[in-house]
Amino acid sequence: MRHRKSGRGLSRSRSHRTALVRNQVTDLLRHEAIVTTEAKAKTIRPVAEKMITLGKRGDLHARRQASAVLTDRKVLRTLFDDIAPRFAERNGGYTRIIKLGPRRGDGAQMAHIELVERAAPEIEEAVADEDAAEE
Fold it and tell me: Are 87 and 76 in contact (CB under 8 A)?
């Protein structure tokens, strides 16, 4: 029974899951959009939104807290200098998850997670790139 067990295990150990989330959040902030499974997208969303909130705060302590999660210093700099100021007027809801349907190989439900400030045509390009990579 799973009584009182919250969160998704993603069929990984704790350290593997933590590394996965850190890498996915770093890639999301680097490219501003990624295609992954729906479960992973739902898992990384709160962490990514927390990073943007820390970027909006902008003080040294927030930078050190974000540095503990993000794996690349360039992405950390981009978060605080470029991404966070774009969301200065927004009170949360910085990411969007778009469901794409099942993956061809194993049937896993795929999703496109992106920052909400991106333009719509880039979604279609990412989906087309994913379809071309599968073939």
Answer: no
The tokens describing 104, both together, are 């061809």
pLDDT at 122: 54
Q: How far apart are CA 84 and CA 81, in angstroms?
A: 7
Cα gap 128→100, rounded to integer Å: 11
Cα angle: 5, vertex 6, 12; to 5 degrees: 85
Angle between helices 14-31 and 38-57 (to 10 degrees): 70
Residue 112 Cα distances to 3, 4, 26, 128, angstroms:
30, 29, 15, 12
* DSSP H or E segment with residue 26: helix 14-31
- What's the pLDDT score for residue 121? 54
Under DSSP, the state recorded for 71 is S
CB neighbour class for 130 (10 Å; exposed up to 12, middle 13-18, buried from 19)? middle
Asked whether the beta carbons of 68 and 22 are under 8 A apart, the reply is no
Question: 33, 21, 31: which is closest to 69 by C-alpha?
Answer: 21
Predicted TM-score (pTM) of this structure? 0.84
Query: Tokens 């007027």 map to which residue?
Result: 89
